[in-house]
Predict the structure of BTB domain-containing protein.
Amino acid sequence: MAEPRLLHNRFGTKIITVEVDQNPARQTFTVHENLIRKSSAFFEAALGRGWTEARDRVVKLPEYSARAFELYMNWLYTSRPHYKDPHGMSLAEAESSWCDLLESYLLGDYLQDANFKDITIDSMLRWMHDCEVKSCHIPAIFSVKTYERTGDGSPLRTLLVGFSAWSLYMAFIKSLEDIESRIECPRLFLRDLVSRVANIARERTQPSSPYGQHNGTCHYHCHGKGPCYKAEDATL
């Protein structure tokens, strides 16, 4: 039976310091240099090319949260994700767990650690599946951060857009559950629905109720500029 490998054989003996976040939330971590350089192209470059970080043995990441780096460290040493399961959480707690996932992915993107990004994406997918029953949603502020800190073609962008579109669609489907027979929406209806949502987003205005138009329900009538039937009968 082969003997287990000693930790110093697996990770080496050199330690580096990583300072994360900014005061007053700044925290300091120590990590085995060989381990993190093998996983992160950023750390490989920072510690292997004569940069200041290699001389001082300190790498600073002021734009990223200590919580995200803690999750990254836990993954480095265990090869397992360490995110909170949203089952049993309140809505606010579930959204906080999503924030951890988002911050972790953005950190992994900056560190150029493809494996960590992939496992974080998988954790996001599990979060989405688990939150389906809870009717959780992803606050719009997270899309702002995603698009500010990722580029075109980012898998995170693709996932976020796909989930948001699906959530919109599922909300509509659920509204049909009280109808006895299933309804397959016409493609033209879906086209018009998407067009309307796009217009609302472009105008950045809250849509009014269909029954609250400023010019009354005539907005939906066929008489055009002609008189409305209600004008001909004062009792209506």
In short: Strands lie at 15-20, 27-32, 58-61. The chain is about 55% helix and 5% strand.
